[in-house]
Amino acid sequence: MKSPKKILSQLNILAQCKKYNLSPWQCPQFLFLVMGALIISSTIIAYIIGTRFIEDPLAVALVIVSLAEILITITVVITHSFERLAEASRMKSEFISIVSHQLRSPLSNLKWTIELLMSGKLGKIEEKQTEYFKILKENSNRMQILISDLLTVSKIESAGLPLRQEEFYLQDLITELIARYKSFARASNVEITFNSQKDLPKITSDPSQITLVLENLLDNSIRYIKDRGRVEVQISKKNKTIHLSVKDNGVGISKRDQKYIFQKFFRGENIMRYQTQGSGLGLYISRAIIKKAGGKLSFESEENKGSTFWFTLPIK
Amino acid sequence: MVHLANQIDRQLIMKTILFIEDESALQKTFGEVLGQEGYKIIPALDGETGLKLAKTKNPDLILLDLILPKIHGFDVLKKLKETEETKNIPVIILTNLEEVGDINKALEMGVTTYLVKAQYSLEEVVEKVKSALND
Which of A121, A147, A151 sits opposite B36 (nearest CB)? Predict the structure, then answer.
């Protein structure tokens, strides 16, 4: 449901054009308004002229033809402005994609060269140097994750995220993932538990993309726990869906921030105080993936108490 | 004399890997690591040279990037699989293209493994190379 305020703001067409950085004569909304006004006035004019010059059909025909010409011209301008908008959107996605791909190659070189140096195969590394190599490695990893996220966003916003269709057990994916996160959790003083309902059926979806969602949820829940805490992963069958939840007793999301949490690049005010890392893309991407897979992703949260993020996936 | 014979012997049994990759930095890093693992690396910086070397050097494995100068990786792969002398050489794709379409296309064309550079560590790639060579 749209609020009255939202509807009113949509009526302010010039403000909308300004928002998209378009002049009124390049802006489809404005042009539609002009065209609508012209259709109404031309119908009235055609009627008035038609009744007044009823004996001279040539004059009437000329008026109607010239009005039709004006309308056609406006339609062409509108089509052009739509094309320009579509082109701008395509170029934006293409730009992100090219930049990300071009950034990836030097980054892979950097990452592997650091790994080679750290392996000691080129000579012994002093302990002090190892510390700094670790910083280099962590930062190149961060950059890699960010580029990967940007690429996913550009896919979501352009052609759409392609999802493979494979049969797999979601519980297996979670078990594997929790094992991978064990050392990170231990280092953060977080205990992860996993409860699964017995005899859950397989689901058909894209395991690599679902893994990405699970990674985002697990990573957030561990990362945003202060001092020590607990993350509970639960999975069960509800009607014709598999329901998965990740519950933590972390910093939570304030009421004010909750409505923005799935927005691109948004990061909660309280988490910015604890953690500076993170791009604010994880939840946006996760929600798009789950939506594309036919499910729903949502959450409940209370500041300083914790959050529960959950999603559903259809059983086919 | 014995030492020289051993060296020749080792060079004879050393497996060769043709690495078709236009990034010279990666050629250097990979050459170093795989060299230390006991493989002989034949570098090729573009698709055309890669194809020529695949026919003349008869490598045990080909590591192939997809975005390459002169001839694109997919065209290199197509020619490799069409040519009698090279069609049975295992090919590992090592690229930054991660579109599902590209992955499926490469697998259908008969590559052994498809690796997205950003997703693997150096060590993991070396392990994939070893397993493709049954080492």
Answer: A121
Task: Enumerate the residues of chain A whose CB falls inside 8 A of the CB of residue B101.
Answer: 162
H or E element at residue A265: none
Q: pLDDT tens, A56-91?
A: 778 778 878 888 888 888 888 888 888 887 887 778
The separation between the first and the last C-alpha atoms of chain A, rounded to the nearest angstrom, is: 30
pTM: 0.67
Contacts of A147 in chain B (CB under 8 A): 118
Question: Which residue in B93, B115, B117, B128 has the most chain A C-beta atoms within 10 A of its own C-beta, making it the best mutation to test that interface?
Answer: B117
Domains and their CATH numbers in chain B? 15-132 (3.40.50.2300)
Contact between chains at B117 and A164 (C-beta distance less than 8 A): no
- Per-window interface: A 129-168 vs B, CB < 8 A: 144, 147-148, 151, 162, 164
Element housing A153 (H / E): helix A127-157
| Residues from chain A contacting residue B118 (CB–CB below 8 Å) | 104, 107-108, 144, 147-148
Length of chain B: 135
Which range among A45-49, A204-208, B51-55, B79-83 shows the weakest confidence by mean pLDDT?
A: A45-49
Residues of B in contact with A164 (CB under 8 A): 100
* CA–CA–CA angle A10, A14, A15 (5° rounding): 65
Tokens, residue B58: 């008869």
- A66, amino acid identity: S
Q: How many residues comprise chain A?
A: 316
The topology under which CATH files domain A166-314 is Heat Shock Protein 90 (3.30.565)
**How high is the pLDDT of residue A64?**
80
pLDDT digits (tens, 9 = 90+) for A21-41: 677 777 777 888 888 888 888
CB-CB neighbours of B58 under 10 Å:
12
From the list A13, A20, A33, A18, the residue with the least C-alpha distance to A78 is A33
The maximal CA–CA distance of chain B, rounded, in angstroms, is: 55
pLDDT in tens, A98-112: 777 778 888 889 999
Question: What does the domain layout of chain A look like in residue ranges?
Answer: 1-160, 166-314
Mutate to test the interface with B, among A105, A114, A121 (most CBs of B within 10 A): A105
Pair A245, A290: CB distance under 8 Å: no
Alpha-carbon distance of A92 to A36, in angstroms, equals 31
Which secondary-structure segment (H or E) carries A108?
A: helix A57-118
